[in-house]
Amino acid sequence: MTIIRNTMVVGIVALAGPAAAQDDPMETSGSLIERYGVEVALGGGVEDFTNDTLRNTTTTGGSWNVRVAVGTRTPLAFEGAYIGSAQPIDALGLDGDAVLLGNGLEALARVNLTQTEIQPFAFGGLGWRRYSIRNENFNTSAVAESDDVLEIPLGVGVAAKYRGFVFDARGEFRIARQEDLMPALNAEDPTEDADMHRWAVNANIGYGF
């Protein structure tokens, strides 16, 4: 009876062992991260408007972002990011020290063209940015104090990976919708608002898991 009992215990342990290891949440989590890839990065660059009215009213400014990417080891990845920007703005009736500040969020789908240490990619998505005038003591101009804008970012970039660290550079064009920060100059319709499309070039540094 002892021999039979011991044989049954050994058999149960042998069967339960692989299943227990397979159901280990830590091992499952680790394998998923290694398989798909996760990156956390921060960076900055330069941005400006493409519209003549806004280009004549503002100057090229700085930008910054914090982003998380999931799926960097697969052909399709997804990014979520906080984005910010700041640039001087000068208009008749507006304090000369005024700054146009932007803060927003975006979600991107990213197509990774390779799965190597040098990884070119293209991306597109949807974002929201709130523009507001800061550092002004007076504003009697046609420029609104704030404006919420829907943005559609489209662009390309390339990432370089080394011992877990990730460096990427990207260029993008951001289509703006629902903008009403200021009226367009020389427009046939005097109620028409200036387009707030933007171009941007930025670089990021982060770490991949």
Tell me what you see in this structure.
This protein is α+β, with helices and mostly antiparallel strands. The protein has two domains: 1-36; 38-208, Porin (Beta Barrel). It is 19% helix and 51% strand. An eight-stranded antiparallel beta barrel has the order 1-2-3-4-5-6-7-8. The longest helix has 21 residues, at 2-22.
Task: Write a brief structural summary.
The protein is α+β, with helices and mostly antiparallel strands.
**What's the overall geometry?**
elongated
How are helices and strands ordered from N to C? HHEHEEEEEEE
CATH architecture label of the largest domain: Beta Barrel
Total domain units: 2
From the helix content, strand content and strand pairing, which structural class follows? alpha+beta
**C-alpha termini separation:** 52 Å
Strand content: over 45%
Integer-rounded radius of gyration:
25 Å
What's the CATH class of the largest domain, please?
Answer: Mainly Beta
Uncertain spans:
6-23
Counting H and I runs of at least 4 residues, what is the number of helices? Answer: 3
What is the helical fraction, as a range of percent?
Answer: 10-25%
Number of strands: 8
Main-sheet strand order equals: 1-2-3-4-5-6-7-8
